[in-house]
Amino acid sequence: MFRDRFWWSLILSIPIVIFSPMVAHLLGYHLPAFPGSTWIPPVLGTIIFVYGGTPFLKGGWKELKSRQPGMMLLIAMAITVAFVASWVTTLGLGGFDLDFWWELALLVTIMLLGHWLEMRALGAASSALDALAALLPDEAEKVIDGTTRTVAISELVVDDVVLVRAGARVPADGTILDGAAEFDEAMITGESRPVFRDTGDKVVAGTVATDNTVRIRVEATGGDTALAGIQRMVADAQESSSRAQALADRAAALLFWFALISALITAVVWTIIGSPDDAVVRTVTVLVIACPHALGLAIPLVIAISSERAAKSGVLIKDRMALERMRTIDVVLFDKTGTLTEGAHAVTGVAAAVGVTEGELLALAAAAEADSEHPVARAIVAAAAAHPEASRRQIRATGFSAASGRGVRATVDGAEILVGGPNMLREFNLTTPAELTDTTSAWTGRGAGVLHIVRDGQIIGAVAVEDKIRPESRAAVKALQDRGVKVAMITGDAQQVAHAVGQDLGIDEVFAEVLPQDKDTKVTQLQERGLSVAMVGDGVNDAPALTRAEVGIAIGAGTDVAMESAGVILASDDPRAVLSMIELSQASYRKMIQNLIWASGYNILAVPLAAGVLASIGFVLSPAVGAILMSASTIVVALNAQLLRRIDLDPAHLAPTESKEERTTPTPASTAVH
Questions:
Q1: Residue pair 361/453 in contact by the 8 Å Cβ criterion
Q2: Is 97 annotated in the active site?
Q3: pTM over 0.70
Q4: Which of 350, 404, 448, 631 has the most C-beta neighbours closer than 10 Å?
Q5: Rounded to a whole number, what is the distance in angstroms from the first to the last CA of the chain?
Q6: Rounded to the nearest 10 degrees, what angle do helices 577-611 and 473-482 cross at?
Q7: Three-class DSSP category at 382
Q8: What confidence tens digit (pLDDT) does each residue in 124-138 have?
């Protein structure tokens, strides 16, 4: 909208400027004259006022009704006064010389350019609430008298039974009546691993049954579902954060009152001294030049250049308030999985029983897991491929079968191989050998997933599967703390898992065992302690917290809902990019302040002169001189904003890692049943 209106207004402004007597006088040329030429500025100026000025007039009216004056009201006031005064002059009413058509045209055009630059830089973001709603399927398979019938999810009621096939989304909150499956809950929790749900377990609308078909009794629909609860929290958080006013709007509000009060004083003083005509001319001039072009470009130019520089560093800015607020952040709250950690499983420990080598153990486990698509299976296969001995053993399995939540079974080299977790051991009444107990207990104690490998009924070893800390996380935490910013971590994992990760990274505060719906509450608690919070997350359950925080930062590899809820998106998964955001925020804020000083300095000088404070000594600022000052101010602002291009936002430079051989210590992740 702003782009189209800008280009049309620019085209229409050219003849207005050319046929302006004031511009002709300044540049020293004679106006082209032909029948009707004098009507070119008023006709085209009216078109620009109506077409190009509509967004500002509507915005100004909205600000006036909310009693929160800002940029829109300041622009609306200036162009309205210029429009009325110019028509009065054009029609010859009162003998006033207030021809502001060219000024009106350029003001609207430049303000449209500023808003277009800002909108283009920030990009159009669809609603987080729409993204949440998109997680639900449109239809469900309702079970009626042993058969299924496809119905709209709006027709489901409590106690209905629905069939959820492998790969399908759960249409409503409920309990599994029949069957068992592993559910991908990443869109809700942000956690990468599937979660095993058996008969009697509860499931949440929007999650996906990955491997089996189950029947579910509906227990909550519509507004009563967990997903609807998240939607309400996001809406509440949006409402609470929408009252904030950007820096440019605060400056424009002050300028609005400055111009209005100056205009009133001008009108009163000139009327008292007996010059009502001068009172009108001076008052109108004050109101028109009170809205400098530079103010309309000061912030958008900085935002446009900042957004461009940020994008090249892997940071996508959606909300200008996030850009302004990041410099004031007191604490960065990281979601653990997929943010500080890689969010993917890896084998981090191998323990073989007497008589079995690590390579043999990994080769057997990888052969048994080769046909499985489970993330843990992929981790074991990858570990075997990277192991010198295991990778040389070219063995294949036959008779593969998987049991959700228990493990896999296959025949390898004529032996029956089982790979699985605690459920498998209980099912086959197996006991961990004494020589493995100390190692596996240590793994379990730090929260690792432990999988045992069984050959012909005998446990021959075990592997630890964990979520590794990103190599960049330590550098990010240390660099933030060096800047005086606290670092906190939030996770649904057990206390021992969370605190082990926190201790390893040197994190200041850890929130563990946090339910998905309570993350928003933790942000509120930090804010109630007087802290300004930046939240970094990637899941649907992070959406309310991302919206509630002063700055919401989403990992680009996370869910659509998280990205829609955040003001900033990290295109990469490098947590050090948060440092880039802070550096950019501080630099851009300095440029905003500098530009506002230049833009407002014009007003501080020009408004009193236009009001006639030096009239007693024969000097009154004419609109022509005001226009020159305005243009000079705009040029200075534009050049100053370009200096932002020199800033270095490379995360590797802002927070260098320890060394090429930097530790890749595994983070204790929640135990993954397989």
A1: yes
A2: no
A3: no
A4: 448
A5: 53
A6: 40
A7: helix
A8: 444 445 655 666 788
